[in-house]
Each structure stands twice: as C-alpha cells, then as structure tokens.
Amino acid sequence: MSFIRNAWYVAGWSSAFGEALSPLEITGQRLVMFRASDGRVIALEDRCPHRLLPLSKGKRIGDTVQCGYHGMTFDSAGKCVRVPGQTNLPSSAYVDAFPVEDRHGIVWIWMGEPERANPDDIFDLPQFSDPGWHVHHGGQLHIRAHYLNVAENLVDPAHVSFVHPTTLGNSASENVPVHVSTSGDVLRAWRWIRDAPPIGFFQKFGGFSGNVDRWHYYDLHMPSTAVIDFGSIATEEACPEEERDRGVRIFALHFVTPVTEDYTIDHWMHLRNTAQGDDAASDQMDAMFRVAFDEDKQVLEAIHAEEQRPQKRKPIRIAIDKAPNVYRKRIRDLIEAERTEDLGAPEGPAYVMHD
After folding, report:
1. How does pLDDT run across 28-63, given as a tens digit for each residue?
2. What is the pTM of this model?
3. How many CB atoms lie within 10 A of CB 18?
4. Residue at which a domain ends, from 61, 92, 116
5. Residue 54 and residue 79 in one domain
6. Where does the record place the Rieske domain (predicted)?
C-alpha cells in the first residue's frame, strides 16, 4: 500500500455533487456520494455488506440509500435502517461513512480513521477570501500514472523549460538555478528568470511590450496538494521577490487525488490578481492550461508505462531531484507511521536505551 489514508483529499468540485448517487474511487476505496436534503455531501462505502453489490447501483430514498439487490437500506451515517422481510437489524449490517467538508467550492474527504479527521487541517489560502483575487475552478486531468509521480512533477520547476516550451516556459530558464527548501512542513522549489522575453501565457494575459522578470514558486503540501505561484512583471520595475503582487500573479492549484496505484486525478484550478470577473479570460486561461497539462500527462503516462517494465539498471538522480527525493521519504515515513501504533514511553522497561 502506497497511500496515506489519514489525509484530506479532493473528491471534486462542489458543483459535481447533487441528489444523484455518484460512484467514486479514492486510494483504492470505492465510494458512493450524494448531497443530502440539508445540503451536506455524504460519502459511504460503495458496497452492500450482504452480497457486495455497489450501493451506487441502488437508489436513493430520501437521505437513505437502498441496495439494488435485496433492498437493504442505509442512512447517511452508514447504519442499516431496513432489511426487507425481517424486523431485526444485524449489528454487522453497516457501511463505512467518511468525513466530508465542502468549502470554497471544493469537496474534501477524509479517507482514514474518522476520529482523526480535523477540518482545520484542510488546505486553505487567504486569497480564496480576498476580493482582490479572482477564484476560478478549472477541470480534472485523468492520468494513468501513480500519484507520487504526478505530485513530484509539481515541485519541479526544471521540467517547465522542456515540457512546456510554448506555454509555461521557454529556453531562457534552462540553466537558471533552482532554489530548494525542505526544512518546513511545505516543500518549496523556486527560481526567478530575470530580463527575459515573457512566456506564451503572459504574452497573452500580461500585455508586456518588453522583457520581464518572471518567477515560479512550487509549494508541495503533504500528501499531494501543490501550489504553483507564477507570474511576470516588467524588468524595469525591479520588483523584489516579496512584492510579487505588483506583477501579474497567478496561483495554479493542483489537488492530486490517488485513485488506484495506476490512476490519478489532478483537480486543477487557479486564482489570479488580474482580469477580475472576466469569464472570457478564464476560458482562455483554461484552454492554455489544458494544453500545458496535457503535455505533463503524456510525459507522466509514458514514465509510468516504463516503470512497469523490467529495469536493467538503477535509475539515476541528479541535482534537480532534491525536493522530489525529500517528498518520497516523507510519504514513506507517513505511510509507515500509519502501519504501526506508538504506545509511548514504557513503564518499567526491560531495556535501557543508550542512544
């Protein structure tokens, strides 16, 4: 198992969940989701405990779900409330229910131990509630690749010059050093490209007539949420790094949701400090993002396919792999922590440690 369970993952945009039963799979767990009459999004295990038919193939009756095989019915907490043909309800007749939070137009689901679900741990940005920023939900990128490959691609500025030469990068950045910080909870990689032509994206939306200073800041939040802060400002502005709001600044958010070992969904959106309320600009940005993200998809799926083949030699690692290497180690440590239970310091131990 290579998934972290005790984490909040994005199930989808709020607009995707209505009264209908929606099947979904996250971290190998199949779910059925729907919006209850009080507006809450409900997530239940998508498997009847009787004959294992997915509940998503049944029907909704009020805020309950009736199995389509023999009619066993479950409420929004997963408790069985009806077994046709008998009055007693077996204690084992239940399905798991998963904590769900709906905020900023995003539906988050906790896939681990319910008692450990803390809504305060859900990813947030102050710009979500800042009237100076435009929030736009984008789309979903379905990738036939392992989620770790997808996520580590999102803390790797170096690939932009080669994978996205006409949209998000160009050759001017090929040899610009990448700075990396792995000391905090959030992994960060970044660089500035000074006094260079604007990339295709900002040629269209920045209105620049000359060279620009542009930046990429890649922040990766455990286990798989990425924030890419990128933008441009005219070179003559001599903009300090901490004053990026003076330029055309965009946050591209990637909520990487592991479906199975071989399938990942990247829910992507953006926030911007330009073109406020301009739906046409949002559509144009979405179109350019789709081109760029499809470039990532092709690379990541090709890598995943090769990873399934026999390897003649060990893969190499180079300088730009610092953040991805630390990311993989943190994921391994988190998974190992979920596999074991720490009982704390022993009383009257039979061993005396000297380390």
Report:
1. 999 999 999 999 999 999 999 999 999 999 999 999
2. 0.91
3. 11
4. 116
5. yes
6. 8-109
